[in-house]
């Protein structure tokens, strides 16, 4: 059973082909056209620019995904079982490009269409080539979302914690801006943090807060951490000489809160495993720390390969496959964009 998947929720134009048998998912192709360099000069994603690039890239990306999967375009209707597409959340103009393309192909090729929530896709990035144990607690962290999701069975989700303000990825971007590092902030902060050597530090240690760490819930808040960084930088005349140290402390603060809340939630809900998903899942400190703490708690731990952490169509196809098995398809005229779609 082969699924063509399309993802255009933000600034990546992506298409993939997945082959599923039972609970096993194999990836036949995954093509991503990134716009990061285009948006770097603006310090963030410009919706109108992103949408125009999606228009230019969507068909070539789909054709490349089919070709790499060994499916000639003329044989696609017979070779494919369905088409999965991201319907939200995301930028409305970007989402529309992917949705209208998927609707057209579904109509012309007479294939079922599967509407996939973008966050749902991130959750299922852990199921590509792997069969994780359920129930699980999944930490989903990206530029727009920070959530703890309880997944009891396939397609069964319950949000047990989420950010009350900035998402973790957004906090990294804003911190990088304050430090004059550029965009996107997460990788730049991690790179600088790796340069810090505590033993060689000649200054008074930097101590940033760990927001909501001791509160009796699984919610997050990172706006206060960003503000604390702003005030600390303002009062430190030597901060330009301490960029690696600031990055190290900021990264430590974010990771400590994320990991602590995840472990506590897993223990409360007595799950079999912990999973990690989303763009910030590429952060090496977060990956290693959460894996270590999960093992200490005797919990199975899963995280997607680096290539499936950022926005991609493979994860949309993975979620789409399990929805197709559950007969959750939508007639193409009824597929609608929802930029504020909740899990």
Q: Could you describe the 3D structure shown?
A:
The chain is of the alpha/beta class and 343 residues long. It has 2 domains: 2-127 and 308-334, Nucleotidyltransferase, domain 5 (2-Layer Sandwich), CATH 3.30.420; 136-302, ATPase, nucleotide binding domain (Nucleotidyltransferase, domain 5, 2-Layer Sandwich). The chain has helices spanning 36-40, 47-68, 76-79, 92-109, 118-124, 168-178, 185-193, 223-235, 243-269, 284-296, 313-325, and strands at 2-7, 12-21, 24-34, 82-88, 113-117, 136-141, 146-153, 156-162, 273-277, 300-302. The strands form 2 sheets. The protein has a 5-stranded mixed β-sheet, with helices on both faces. Helix 10 (284-296) links the parallel strand 9 and strand 10. Helix 5 packs across helix 11 (313-325), helix 6 packs antiparallel against helix 9 (243-269) and helix 7 (185-193) crosses helix 9 (243-269). It starts with a strand and ends in an 18-residue tail after the last helix. The model has no long low-confidence stretch (mean pLDDT 95).
Which keywords apply here?
single chain; 343 residues; alpha/beta; Nucleotidyltransferase, domain 5; 2 domains; 5-stranded mixed β-sheet; 10 strands; globular
Please give a quick description of this structure.
The protein is of the alpha/beta class.
Write the layout of secondary structure elements.
Elements: E1 2-7, E2 12-21, E3 24-34, H1 36-40, H2 47-68, H3 76-79, E4 82-88, H4 92-109, E5 113-117, H5 118-124, E6 136-141, E7 146-153, E8 156-162, H6 168-178, H7 185-193, H8 223-235, H9 243-269, E9 273-277, H10 284-296, E10 300-302, H11 313-325
Helix pairs in contact: 2-4, 5-11, 6-7, 6-8, 6-9, 7-9, 9-10
């Amino acid at each position: 059973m082969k699924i063509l998947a399309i993802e255009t929720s933000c600034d990546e134009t992506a298409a993939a082909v997945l082959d599923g048998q039972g609970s096993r998912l194999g990836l036949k192709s995954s093509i991503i056209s990134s716009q990061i360099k285009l948006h770097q000069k603006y310090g963030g994603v410009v919706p109108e620019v992103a949408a125009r690039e999606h228009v230019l890239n969507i068909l070539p990306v789909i054709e490349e995904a089919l070709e790499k999967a060994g499916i000639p375009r003329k044989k696609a209707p017979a070779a494919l079982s369905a088409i999965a597409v991201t319907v939200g959340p995301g930028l409305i103009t970007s989402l529309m490009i992917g949705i209208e393309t998927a609707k057209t192909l579904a109509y012309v090729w007479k294939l079922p269409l599967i509407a996939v929530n973008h966050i749902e896709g991130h959750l299922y990035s852990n199921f590509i080539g792997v069969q994780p144990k359920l129930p699980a607690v999944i930490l989903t962290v990206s530029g727009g979302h920070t959530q703890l999701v309880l997944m009891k069975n396939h397609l069964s989700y319950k949000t047990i914690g989420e950010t009350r303000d900035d998402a973790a990825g957004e906090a990294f971007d804003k911190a990088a801006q304050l430090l004059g590092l550029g965009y996107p902030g997460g990788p730049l902060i991690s790179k600088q943090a790796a340069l810090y050597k505590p033993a060689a530090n000649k200054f008074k240690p930097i101590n940033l807060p760990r927001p909501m760490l001791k509160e009796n819930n699984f919610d997050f808040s990172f706006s206060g951490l960003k503000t604390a960084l702003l005030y600390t930088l303002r009062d430190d005349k030597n901060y330009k000489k301490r960029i690696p140290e600031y990055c190290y402390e900021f990264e430590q603060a974010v990771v400590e809160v994320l990991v602590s809340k995840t472990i506590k939630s897993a223990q409360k809900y007595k799950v079999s495993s912990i999973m990690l998903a989303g763009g910030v899942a590429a952060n090496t400190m977060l990956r290693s720390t959460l894996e270590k703490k999960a093992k200490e708690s005797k919990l199975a731990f899963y995280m997607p390969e680096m290539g499936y952490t950022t926005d991609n169509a493979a994860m949309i196809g993975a979620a789409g496959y399990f929805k197709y098995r559950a007969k959750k398809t939508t007639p193409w005229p009824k597929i609608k964009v929802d930029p504020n779609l909740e899990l």
